[in-house]
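anyone seen this seq b4? input:
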Amino acid sequence: MDTDLAEANWFKSTRSTGGKECVEVAWLANGAVGLRDSKNPTGPALVFASHEWDAFNEGLKAGRF
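predicted toks r here
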């Protein structure tokens, strides 16, 4: 998936404690979801299709990870 992240609006979870081990998420225009390391905002980012992100969150809620 080739997605332009230049205009992405990145945010941390409201549950983030402000420590150094944070990730940031962005809802992307094409319906995908971006994920990056907050310590390296210019570094690489992962991009997930919306159904992949939904499956990941359901797995978290179910305790599979």
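The mean pLDDT is 89. The CA atoms of residues 59 and 65 lie 7 Å apart. kinda curious what u guys think
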